[in-house]
Amino acid sequence: MADRNLYSRCCMFQAKGLFLGLILAGSFFFITTSSALADSNQVSSCCTLGGDVTGDGRVNIEDIMYLVYYTFSGGPAPTCFDAADVTGDSTSNITDIMYIVTYVFAGGPAPVCPTFSTGGASSDALIDSALTNGTIDYETSLIYRVYALYNDSRLPAIYRGDDSGIRENNVELEISRNWNQLSVATQDLVGPYVVNPIYEGSWLNQGVAGARSLDSLWCKPWKDTCSISPDWYYIDSNNGLVRVWYNRAFMATDEAKAIAVAAAIDNAIYPKLTGLMGKVPLSDAGFINNGGNGRMDITLMPGLTDVYGYTTSIPGILSTCTNFPPLIKVDRGLTGGILLATVTHEVMHAILFAFPAGCYFEQYAWMHEATATWSEHYVYPAFNSEHEYTWLYMYQTNWPLDWNPEKGSKKAGLFKYSTYLFFFYLQQISANFIPAIWNASTSPDPLSAIESGLQSAGGTNLEERWPEFALRNWNTAPFDQYKQWDNIKEKAYEYNIDVALNGASEGRFEIEKSEVNYLTARYTHFYFVDDDISFVSFVNGQMFDVSTATSSDGVWYYKAVARPAAETKGLKIQMLYKLSGQDWALRDVTDEANVIFCRDRLDGRVEELVFIFSNSSIDRDRSIKPADRNPLLYVSNTGCWEWSGEVKVVENGCEVTTLTANVDWTTLMSPIFNLRLGPLDEFAMLQTGIPFTPSSGVFSWKVSGGCGDCVVSGSKSWPVLGPEPNLMLVYPGAFGGPYHRGIDFGDLTPGLTATASEHVVCPDDTFDNPLWIISLNSNTEAPEGKIHLSADGKQITGSYDDGSGTVTTINLTAVRE
After folding, report:
1. Which of these, 600, 615, 442, 450, lies nearest to 534 by C-alpha position?
2. Which of 208, 230, 391, 648 has CA 20 to 30 A from 293's CA?
């Protein structure tokens, strides 16, 4: 063999003598020789000596001859491509030959091993980028992706990325589906890999990939009927449907694994998956190199990188999109639960190819992975192998369920697995949703299949299910069903906002991350870290067009106008709130213009608020975002539960009447108050003001003086007997204008159950005048009055003379329960 190689090289050298002569004579000319086939033979970063193409530890004419033969005559690829790529341009051509010639014969600079930076991207990402920018063509990209999958040294270093954590690779499936459209040269390069490795001529049975020329292989199983290598043994499942292959070199460990896999097929995997889905994988009976019969083949194989396993098919046998007999390859290095979970995952893939969506694999690829990952839980709920991917969906709930970014992105490769959570959620309602969805996969749109499947299996839809799914992803007690169901610890990512006034009287805290794309959810978490905050108002700028407005009474407020239904279809806003000493509670606030909390009272003392914005639409163009103003919290330090102190109204005239209320004024509002009233101007005061009424304490009445010849006198005190028919309004929600931090105080009219009497003494008569109603008109209003709210929001003090002789004096202090 050595002599024959030397002869070939000698002849090659004679044939290219003119070319080398020109180079040696100094006639340097450039010829572009790079092609898809030439590039396909490139090798990976294995260089120890630049220019040492033959790998003999020297750089001399032998290397030049070898490279000329490879470049111009289809000779064998260099054993180390990077040693030949001395110019570092990721290809081997005339420039590399000239560089080495100059070094060997003209004292030029020594060749060096090229170095590349991949920036941490995966190999697929690097290859896809090169395909996108035209550096390589499609068939070359397939070749390189196979090389990356099998860690083949022919992959140029510039495309060798960080493939850690990538658990599956669909390149073999893509090749099998497109086999008949590939060139013969490409088929011959990828063929040794895509066939079942049990056959003579596969990459495992011809030694190191690329070490033997194609012509030296006596059988090519990607095109010929070949024999199974005697190095491969098998275990059959008892159900007669599956054969598990393992290699003799690893018999000490892999025979037991094959037995375990076959037993799992019989006892758990097949019964559970085919029983639920109602279909079985298609048989490969009648096709060449099918493992010897129509059983589905599962091969425990060495040589994969971080890939756990994948499902493909025999090259060239796909006659229709639904004619897909599967071939499963699993990393032999897996053990225990991970091995069985991986087999489960791949068997589910094999079953799914029997559904109508086989005609639309590209569109359903994400749902394939989501369903197959979920099946790991369905068959082996205690293994929790699927938990490996949970974090990614929880971290990116703002990505649509079918999100598919740039091909080869590491997150893209994992995200589709993480969406198993949706099917996990559906299973808790009914596992029958899953086969119903796949039976509905008759169009290229998997989202329509989901909607149809939900309706056919349970009379429900995404509008109902998606908000609940979004809530479950929050995964915090008492809404921690994920933890209860499967010990899932991750929860959806939140945008966290600390709510504090930091000495100010009021503040606004906008939810800037509230835009929701189709089938996504966003979470914003408010923490109230300042006990000075008494009044909290959520302003719903997502469902309503919110603008600042002034009412006819002069109240500045947030005016909310409901948006057209077409703009908000699919939107759901769920508010989770935690009151002091209580568990979390849930409230649907989608249609509420605003929600008010009074934190001065225990039953309104919100400590945390979470808003979940979700969009159940399957319209990929539907992204719901605020039209004008972001949703926000408006907070104030103004007391909102109870005011305690003295209110005195004195009417000065010929008679002096004094009504004093030493009482507690308590709000009439509920601790959590909502408005669905829309933009009507007359409700501005309700949106911004809080009404208070006397609730306990003592009223005192006194009259003295007289008019004309009569003298009057009288007094009485009585306890407050319940809410009185008079109100005090405080405006913590008015963010500007004359009512900003203002007070309204109307008539002081205590209700009496017993009469008071004034004693009247006149020159001609003396009598007692019973009074059933005692009322004094105070007429203190925020825009005009001199009653002041202190900067800390906890004191109301001052006096007001209405100009007619009536003076109102207020001295109240806010009370916190």
Report:
1. 600
2. 208
Instruction: Give residue-wise pLDDT tens across range 22-60.
Output: 344 333 333 323 333 333 333 345 777 888 888 888 889
Instruction: Give the length of the chain.
Output: 817
Compute CA distances 725 → 152, 393, 433, 657, 658, whole Å. 88, 56, 58, 20, 19
- What is the rounded CA–CA span in Å between residue 797 and residue 247? 91
Task: Identify the residue whose tokens are 């086939």.
Answer: 37
- Max Cα distance, the chain (Å): 153
Tokens at 105, concatenated: 């014969």
Return the residue matching tokens 């309700």. Answer: 686
Which tens digits make up the pLDDT trace of 695-731? 889 989 999 998 889 999 999 888 887 666 677 888 8
SS3 328: strand
For the chain, the average pLDDT equals: 85
pLDDT in tens, 209-252: 343 444 445 688 998 899 999 999 999 999 999 999 999 999 99
CA torsion angle for 42, 43, 45, 49 (degrees, to 10)? -90
List, for residues 242-254, the tens digit of each pLDDT value: 999 999 999 999 9
Specify the DSSP class assigned to residue 265.
I
Indicate if the alpha-carbon torsion angle 227, 229, 235, 237 is positive or negative.
negative
Residue 478: cis peptide before it, omega within 30 degrees of 0: yes
Whether cis (ω within 30° of 0) applies to the bond prior to 192 is no
Convert the pLDDT of each residue in 787-812 to its tens digit.
Answer: 888 999 999 998 888 888 888 899 99
For helices 361-379 and 420-429, what crossing angle results, to 10°?
A: 60
Q: Would you put residue 579 in left (φ > 0), alpha (ψ -120 to 50) or beta?
A: beta
671-698 in b/e burial notation, b at 16+ Cβ within 10 A?
Answer: bbbbbeeebeeebbbbbbbbbbbbbeee
Q: Rounded distance, CA 414 to CA 390, Å?
A: 10
Contact in structure between 535 and 794 (CB atoms under 8 Å): no
Q: How far apart are CA 481 and CA 805, in angstroms?
A: 67
- pLDDT of 757 reads 86
Any idea what the Cα angle at residue 132 is, between residues 127 and 138, rounded to 5°? 65
Token pair recorded at residue 779: 């007429």
**814 neighbors 642 (Cβ within 8 angstroms):** yes
Specify whether the backbone of 47 is left (phi greater than 0), alpha (psi in -120 to 50) or beta. beta
Closest CA relative to residue 312, chosen from 350, 279, 356: 350
CA–CA dist 329, 232 (Å, integer): 14
> What band does 677 get if pLDDT is binned at 50, 70 and 90?
very low
* Residue 551 C-beta-side C-alpha neighbours within 13 Å: 23
